[in-house]
Amino acid sequence: MANLSGSIPTHSVSHKGQAGRIIGRILIYLILIAGAVVAVFPFFWMMSTSLMTLGETINKQLLPKTPQFVNFVEAWSTAKFGKYFINSVLITAGTLIGLLITSILAGYAFGRIEFKGRNVIFSLFLATMMMPESVTWIPNFLMIRGAVVPLPGGSWLNTYWALTIPFIANAFSIFLLRQFFAQVPKDLWDAARIDGCDHMRFLVQIVLPISKAPIMTVLLFGFTASWNAFTWPLLVTTNDTWRPMMVGLWTFVREAGPQTHLLMAGAVISLIPILIIYFITQKQFTEGIATTGLKG
Amino acid sequence: MAITTSPQGESTKTQRGIKWLKRREQRTGFLFILPAFLIIFLFGLFPIGYSFYMSLFNWRVRRGSFVGLGHYFDIFGDLLGLLMFLAGIGLFYLAYWVWNKAFRSISAGGFIAKLLAAVVLIVGGYVLTSGWGRMIAAGNSDFLDSLIITLYYALGTVPAEIIIGMVLAYILFQNIKGKEIFRIIYFLPYIMPTVSTAVVFQIIFSSRETSIANMVLGVLGMDPLKWRFEPKAVTTLLGLDLSGFLAGPSLALITIVIFGIWVYVGYNAVIFLAGLGNVPQEIYEAAEIDGANKVHLFRFITMPLLSPVTFYLSLVAFIGTFKAFNHIYVLRVPSAQDSVITASIRIFDSFYKANMYGVATAQAIVLFLVILGLTFVQNKIMGERVFYG
Questions:
Q1: Are residues A38 and A184 in the same domain?
Q2: What's the CA gap between B132 and B86, in Å, rounded?
Q3: Maximum Cα–Cα distance across chain B
Q4: Are B111 and B242 members of one domain?
């Protein structure tokens, strides 16, 4: 920059400027590294504690003498984190399948089909995004217990349905897909229709293949939301038949006493799927969130 | 498409055709949204109405007697108090308006306006606090206090996480080696399951002398603290003798605030980074040629051009703090008493612990109205200050 301004800098000035710049650089990296340490330390500590003996956790050492990988075996089987983990996987998978079907169909309809009441229904959907969860807890809880409308099988407490059905559609995913589908050129549809294509075939054969990015975003969001869900599963699971990972961690804190090493092993297990997905789809993940920005 | 421009003679036939097509479109549209509609209606829209319905009854697990708006009166206690409180907020807005807009045409108008705004502000503050005092005295002080706690939580987290996020993003935006790695790391706390990380914070901020947080204090030469077990206000711990609202948040709440900041800083930084990418570089170069230094660049170019992002983030974050539940629920302990019970925790307790469904739904609806009101005010005030390039 300085060289562009025209005058030729004297030796001493440029030397001083360079020293200043180097100090500035070092300072900047120090800030960034401090930030990174703060961000990562809890994870590091979680890992390290999960490999300690019970004694070591009480003495608050920073690192285990010999890593106790057996903790993970114990957490998986004895502490039942394995069961909770599999429950979470099944719940998340079911939710995602339902979520994809409902939001692709609805996103397409809102984006590309003209029908009466479209805008009203769409704004009603969007209104649900503003609601605090606490407003819907109680009515939904009563509904799941079969106290509002009769449900097949009476009460859905402690069933797979209670944990999946309420989440197989949400306004946010529909909104996201609608934005994308609405941008698909109209000519494509006109051409397809002349060839005798109806909406369903157009959606499946033409629109979906070019919509991988937004569908991926919906999947990532759906996955994190479902995997991280806590309050609702806490309300509708009273035993461990379908108790998911997050509730499992919480009940372990309350019921198993101070077995920090097992608790941390469970916490590490609970992070693994999200970590894998985050590192594989890192760029898309970050950008998807940066452009749409929501945390459940 | 082509049908609409077809010749006259076929018009009745094509019109019937269009009608048939339209009906088919209508049917397809409805069929496509039907699955989503059923779920969102049942679990998203219907509960809003049903919540209000429930709030009109003495509902304890089963529906009891009809009480009308009784639960709402119980919350606010004193109708005059509520009106005074709202009038106080109105006066605050008036003061803000006077400060910015009134007396622009008169010379020395600025001084008069500021003086008047200050007077209105003081009156507003008086009316608001005495209204609130009346409400606390007669109403459900547990719930009203939880709103104050929520406000502390919001004021503790939102500005800090936004400022730190912005600074980190600004630094990262310079030519930094390993920028991607830093970004990945900063984002980690945000995407990780709240319960898992909160469980770790439980142990890091435990009251034991050997807890990580207390070891850090020890290195700094300070005495160990009780962290999330400490119901006393921070100001009290520092030896100040303030009471009531002025005493500020408890150390236990501050611990939760630290967790909140830790989670959201990286998220804000990533979004600010995206915003910085949209700022044209020529502006910086022009300013540098005019002799602006880095601080000037940040203050007079970056900050104004980022203001839409800042606005968006603070709105989302502020509303988020009023909805926040999971980590507060996990991090709270009985010994922190009421000092960490935010509005949504209070609602959950009324519902899940006390089984007072009618009261809980009324509280939830009040919280919803508060969130709506805050959104409106924030839109109004920040919307006017945002600079849209």
A1: no
A2: 9
A3: 95
A4: no
* CA-based nearest residue to A235, from B149, B324, B329: B329
Q: Is the pLDDT of residue A250 over 60?
A: yes
The number of beta carbons lying within 10 Å of the beta carbon of residue A12 is: 8
Distance CA A230, CA A208 (A): 32
Distance CA B86, CA B99 (A): 20
Q: Which residues contact A25 (CB under 8 A, 6 or more apart)?
A: none
Contacts of B345 in chain A (CB under 8 A): none
pLDDT band at B5 (very low <50, low <70, confident <90, very high): very low
Mean pLDDT of chain B: 86
Nearest CA in chain B to A229: B193
Closest-approach residue (CA) in chain A for B212: A60
β partners of residue B250: B233
Q: Which residue of A has its CA nearest to B290?
A: A5
Residue B173 to residues A254, B149, B298, B347, Cα–Cα distance (Å): 44, 36, 12, 42
Q: Is residue A259 part of a domain?
A: yes
Closest among B85, B201, B88 to B147, alpha carbons compared? B85
Residue B64 lies in a domain: no
Q: Are residues A135 and A165 in the same domain?
A: yes
Of B36, B274, B323, the CB nearest to A174: B36
Domain hosting A36: range is 2-50
> Is A45 close to B36, i.e. CB distance below 8 A?
no
Q: How many domains does chain B have?
A: 3
- B351-to-A272, A290, B55, B142, B322 alpha-carbon distances in Å: 33, 35, 12, 14, 18
Assigned domain for A75 exists: yes
Is A86 contained in some domain?
Answer: yes
When CB atoms are compared, the residue of A59, A121, A142 closest to B33 is A121
Closest in B184, B192, B375 to A271, CB measured: B192
**E strand residue ranges, chain B:** none
Coil, helix or strand for B233? strand
pLDDT of B218: 85
Contact residues, chain B, for A59 at CB < 8 Å? 210
Domain boundaries, position B16: 2-55
Residue A138 burial (10 A CB sphere; 0-12, 13-18, 19+): buried
Any residues with CB less than 8 A from the CB of B162 and at least 6 apart, and which?
A: B268, B310, B313, B314, B317
Q: What is the rounded CA–CA span in Å between residue B203 and residue B135?
A: 38
**Does B220 or A108 have the greater pLDDT score?**
A108
List CB contacts (< 8 A) between B40 and chain A: 125, 128, 169-171
A76 and A41 in a single domain? The answer is no
Same domain flag for B114 and B146: no
For chain A, the domain total comes to 2
Which tokens hold the place of B148?
């104050």
Q: Which residues pair with B57 in a beta bridge?
A: B66
Facing A139 at nearest CB: one of B51, B267, B312: B51
What residue spans of B41-78 are helical by DSSP H?
A: 46-55, 70-76
Distance in angstroms (rounded) separating the CA atoms of residues B383 and B222: 43
pTM over 0.90: no
For residue A127, the 8-state DSSP code is H
| Tally: H helices and E strands in chain A | 15, 0
Pair A50, A260: CB distance under 8 Å: no
Q: What is the pLDDT of residue B106?
A: 66
Cβ B43 vs Cβ A166: under 8 Å: yes
Assess whether A15 and A153 both reside in one domain: no
Contacts of B31 (CB under 8 A, 6+ apart): none
